């Protein structure tokens, strides 16, 4: 019943839906399948994130960035009815952390936004990047840009803030929806991945140093 309940929770038709798929027959699709198979086999998550022998690190990072975007997108989608302009007028992680939005177009300077506004800007911004062939090339033989890992660091740093906000401000809702195990597994997988490749500055990780009770190792 737990699996069924989760299926219902994560299959709801929400605003935030996965927006990027890997094309079958491509190298990245094979890597994605390999990563998913390891996850399903219940292997230790620390082992699952390690770069498979002979694979390109940028391909491996690309696969995970897209997959985490899709999964975190869905997690936030299930929370979005509890995360409103009224409940979350500031994009924050408790009283100590506030996140402002900045991009190269509409918001040139760091700008205070409500959590739902921030999430909307974030998901649109990531979607634009991962669908941009100059940043995330999908054609065989087309090299990754020099700045690729820096771009991924920025994406993953901002996705980490979604976990910060959801855990600190909406943890009760996660529990009430029966989605705690799913969210925790996704967070652990994400956390081990960014640590394995040093993709997010350790200072960004501070808000979740003391994880909610029952999170385990």
UniProtKB/TrEMBL annotation:
The keyword Metal-binding applies. This is MOB3C kinase. Coiled coil: none annotated. It comes from Burhinus bistriatus. GO terms for molecular function: kinase activity. Zn(2+) binds at residues 83, 88, 165, 170. InterPro entries: MOB_kinase_act_fam (IPR005301), MOB_kinase_act_sf (IPR036703). Pfam families: Mob1_phocein (PF03637).
